[in-house]
Design a protein that fits this description.
Elements (H helix, E strand, L loop, with lengths): L19 H22 L1 H17 L7 H24 L18 H12 L3 H11 L5 H8 L3 H20 L1
Helix pairs in contact: 1-2, 1-3, 2-3, 5-7, 6-7
């Protein structure tokens, strides 16, 4: 039986704050979504991805003429987002003393502290985009989805953030 991690709901017990239509779909297709995701992404993560699938559906009500097709599409998108996040987490973030390519120097403590201060002084909307991109490893599309803005707005904010950072480094 399909269970949520946090509150241990089963497929017969949808979240109380979901719209009735989503709760009905959850009762009807919850186990099917888990099985669908388990075949593609593995059993250990399928239940979490299924939960995210129904959460997305509840946040963005759509016309549900073909609920299985809609759930499959949302589930695949959730799975792809999970794989991208997983890949981003595996990317090396910092270079250690052993990994330094020839001709490249590691930043000293003063440079690292100065960089933190520069980033901290950015306006919040620019800082959020910069941190999610540079330290979170998210793509512009993922940042746009996370912040509820367009990809073009993310590009613009990142450009502004980089300009401000460069101006502060030079000044």
């Amino acid at each position: 039986m399909f269970e949520f991690n946090k509150d241990r709901r089963t497929a017969a017990e949808p979240a109380a704050d979901w719209p009735a239509a989503v709760a009905d779909l959850y009762r009807t297709y919850g186990n099917w979504v888990v099985a669908f995701l388990a075949r593609r992404f593995g059993r250990e993560i399928a239940e979490d991805l299924a939960q995210e699938t129904f959460l997305r559906l509840a946040q963005h009500p759509l016309d549900w003429r073909s609920p299985k097709a809609l759930l499959a599409r949302i589930a695949l998108n959730v799975g792809q987002d999970h794989l991208r996040r997983e890949k981003a987490q595996k990317r090396p973030r910092l270079v250690t003393g052993d990994d330094v390519p020839e001709g490249v120097a590691l930043p000293d403590q003063h440079e690292a502290l100065f960089h933190r201060e520069v980033v901290a002084k950015l306006p919040r909307n620019l800082r959020d985009v910069y941190v999610l991109s540079r330290f979170g490893g998210l793509t512009y599309a993922e940042i746009a989805t996370h912040l509820g803005i367009s990809v073009k707005a993310v590009e613009k904010r990142m450009t502004q953030a980089l300009k401000l950072c460069m101006a502060r480094y030079r000044g």
